[in-house]
Specification:
The chain is mostly beta strands and 68 residues long. The protein has one domain. It is 0% helix and 49% strand. The protein has a 3-stranded antiparallel sheet with strand order 1-4-5, with no helix packed on it. The relative contact order is 0.29.
Length: 68
């Protein structure tokens, strides 16, 4: 899941439009429309291998970048 939002405080509550593309290896390409500075948050859900599940560690993780 890829989430995009504008950074400008005057654009509070508005949405930024992003085109995303994911390759087979997992590389994500994001193209933004409408705003110059955008914060992009990527939520990744990974399925653990059998026998390697941890109860204390979630199967999802998120990372965010600021694109200017």
């Amino acid at each position: 899941v890829v989430l995009c939002r504008p950074l400008a405080s005057s654009a509070a509550g508005e949405t930024a439009f992003c085109d995303t593309k994911v390759t087979k290896k997992g590389r994500i390409t994001v193209k933004t429309k409408g705003y110059d500075a955008v914060k992009v948050t990527v939520i990744v859900r990974a399925k653990p291998k059998p026998g390697f599940t941890d109860r204390w560690k979630p199967n999802t993780w998120r990372k965010s970048w600021i694109l200017k």
